[in-house]
Design goal:
By secondary structure, the protein is α/β, with parallel strands linked by helices. It has two domains: 2-22 and 30-68 and 130-215 and 320-335, Rossmann fold (3-Layer(aba) Sandwich), CATH 3.40.50; 220-315, Rossmann fold (3-Layer(aba) Sandwich). 33% of the residues lie in helices and 21% in strands. An eight-stranded mixed sheet has the order 3-4-2-5-1-6-7-8, sandwiched between helices. A five-stranded mixed sheet has the order 10-14-13-11-12. A two-stranded antiparallel ribbon has the order 9-15. The protein is globular and about 65 Å long.
Length: 338
């Protein structure tokens, strides 16, 4: 971070550009469009690592329990296609993006489109959902959501961060004012009420939105390619994520990490990578070590035929709001038709 502070002059330029754009929307020069259908936006100020996808899945599944026909609309970052696509069983992560692929395989209706307005209108024409969730929409202001949710990670609060390239923020901290709900994600499960109160007071310097705290619950490992999950001790952690601290901490509590293969967010795995890991860790694999990866990474790996050569286990994750769960549900469901 100290080295990135040297880039602060460039952050001033970035601030001017993003602030001007936001002002144009605020003044109505750049037009936002509202729709009759309820639209919930889920986004963040930072470049990633806040846990958007598990939260989108949680919200979508919660709404489905109310017998609502829910559609998730994403840009489909990292896909090799363009235009509007409604996900089906024939699509891979390279067709629709790894995060939409992950959401689709949670039995959700998922579409991708770079143009959010076009995507919404196509969904209305074809599948007629009762409600639409916009994934990663916070800076895409041409659509005005009925309810805007903003995520900020417990280990990387927006109020301690700086605008790109000195920090990880896509726009000024003051952008948080557009949020109706703020979720502090990836919290320790035992976060005290005193700590929550301190965090809330810092957030309230920028926004009076309702604040919730969520943590992750990891489920049982499952095999990506018929690997046995019995008596796992040594693991090679494989990730292509923006932030791995929370995940790595959990893995270290349960297994011995031989090595962490840490790739950039949305990294496109190649057959050459599989070959390299197979050769480099041959002795470890023969000794019983396995690769543990995330559902998001598994979406990209699953498109490679060569994954059968390696023992790969996948660690699913779910969101937990703890004692605040009922309050979050009530606020969400109370706002869905607004």
């Amino acid at each position: 971070m100290k080295l990135r502070i040297l880039l602060y002059p460039f952050s001033i330029i970035y601030y001017i550009i993003t602030a001007t754009r936001n002002r144009l929307f605020d003044w109505g020069i750049l037009k936002q469009k509202q729709y009759d259908i309820p639209i919930i936006g889920v986004g963040n100020l930072s470049t990633g690592g806040t846990g958007k996808t598990p939260h989108v899945a949680y919200i979508a599944q919660l709404l489905q329990k109310q017998n609502l026909k829910v559609a998730v609309l994403s840009r489909g970052y990292g896909r090799k296609t363009r235009g509007y696509i409604l996900a089906n069983t024939n699509h891979t992560a390279y067709d629709i993006g790894d995060e939409p692929f992950e959401l689709y395989h949670k039995n959700l209706m998922v579409a991708v489109c770079e143009n959010r307005r076009e995507g919404i209108e196509k969904l209305q024409e074809t599948v007629q959902p009762n409600i639409i969730l916009l994934d990663d929409n916070f800076q895409h202001r041409y659509v005005k959501p009925s309810l805007q949710i903003l995520l900020t990670s417990y280990n990387d609060f927006f109020y301690d961060d700086y605008i790109l390239p000195a920090g990880n923020l896509r726009e000024s901290r003051n952008g948080v004012n557009r949020a109706d709900i703020i979720i502090v994600s990836k919290c320790p499960a035992n976060l005290s009420e005193e700590s929550k109160s301190k965090i809330q007071s810092k957030i309230y310097n920028y926004s009076k939105a309702t604040v919730f705290f969520s943590s992750y619950k990891y489920d049982e490992l499952y095999s990506l390619n018929n690997t046995s999950a019995n008596n796992i001790k040594d693991v090679i952690l494989l990730t292509g994520l923006a932030n791995t601290d929370y995940l790595k901490s959990y893995i270290e509590q349960h297994y011995n990490i031989v090595e962490h293969l840490n790739y950039p967010d949305h990294y496109i795995y190649k057959t050459e990578d599989i070959t390299e890991w197979q050769q480099k860790y041959k002795n470890d694999f023969e000794g019983g070590a396995v690769i543990i990866t995330t559902v998001k990474d598994a979406a990209r790996l699953d498109a490679l035929d060569s994954i059968d050569k390696l023992p790969i286990m996948v660690l699913p994750v779910e969101v937990d709001f703890g004692v605040g769960n009922d309050n979050f549900e009530q606020l969400l469901l109370g706002n869905r038709s607004s």
